[in-house]
Specification:
two-stranded antiparallel ribbon, 278 residues, single chain, 44% helix, globular, 12% strand, alpha/beta, 9 strands
Length: 278
């Protein structure tokens, strides 16, 4: 008996709004009277790189830095998630929708659909640099490399990311699964419309009151306050805060013109497609 197509991917290039989307989804499904703790988000949707999942499936400790072993276990890990009895399983990923070492990172046979969050790479570069502890110059360089990886740690396996343009194209231009893209900037401007459309794309009924509450509970002010009070387990060791900025257009005052020029040159086609070229 084949596994059900229960996986809904929440996909994005790093620092593009994936975590905010997960917090909204978690609050929508929790449907509590008060905001869900940002440190409980993983109860309603988790990432695909957690080393503990691979060790559990293998029945022993697995080295998350062993790319080939992790990839050999990945189909079993995803199949176990798809077969857990839930009608929908949200999985966060920064992986490209591609093949690594001949293994399909995003198997269509287990996938219901994908939500792809895209953000202006001019702004991404600044957040990317801070999160990974790089200079902005280095961040811009990595964002243009087709071989860019988020390297494994003791807790997380390698993520096969690639360039900003290549990542977007893998999900939005040549995907074998139903994908709907959402611009981070539109999500900020019209969160109710964007999040309602995400729910509909996944086949989830939209309750207006529940939607409004989840939007409020996932607001930047709310999550920033929570991080200030209790910290956030997903904060990078390279940054003081995870939810440091909630605005669009920081690049206009903080990104060197030569770097902005390179980003436009390297990613022109995809930027044009998504309305990021002025």
């Amino acid at each position: 008996m084949s596994a059900p197509k229960s996986i809904v991917w929440l996909a994005s290039y790093p620092k593009s709004g994936n975590t905010w989307t997960r917090i909204f989804m978690a609050n929508y499904f929790a449907n509590q009277k008060t905001p869900l703790s940002i440190n409980q988000v993983n109860k309603f949707g988790f990432g695909d790189s957690g080393a503990s999942m691979y060790s559990r499936i293998a029945g022993r400790e697995v080295d998350p830095k062993d790319k080939k072993e992790i990839l050999s276990l990945r189909p079993r890990v995803l199949s176990a998630i798809a077969n857990n009895g839930a009608s929908i399983n949200y999985i966060k990923t920064h992986n490209a929708n591609a093949v690594a070492f001949r293994d399909d990172l995003i198997p269509p046979q287990l996938t219901r659909c994908a939500i792809y969050i895209i953000r202006n790479p001019l702004d991404v570069s600044l957040s990317f640099a801070k999160h990974f502890g790089h200079t902005v110059e280095r961040a811009v360089e990595l964002m243009s490399r087709d071989d860019f990886l988020i390297r494994a740690t003791n807790e997380y396996a390698t993520e096969f990311v690639g360039s900003w343009s290549g990542h977007a194209a893998s999900w939005c231009a040549r995907s074998r699964i139903p994908v709907r893209a959402f611009r981070y900037e539109d999500m900020l401007a019209r969160p109710h419309d964007s999040f309602a459309a995400m729910l509909k794309h996944a086949g989830i009924p939209v309750d207006p009151d529940r939607l409004d509450k989840a939007v409020r509970f996932a607001s930047f002010d709310e999550v920033s306050k929570q991080e200030e009070e209790e910290g956030f387990v997903e904060r990078s060791e390279n940054a003081d805060r995870f939810f440091a900025y909630g605005k669009v257009g920081r690049w206009k005052t903080e990104l060197a013109s030569k770097l902005a020029k390179r980003i436009r040159r390297d990613h022109r086609d995809v930027m044009k497609k998504f309305g990021y070229l002025e």
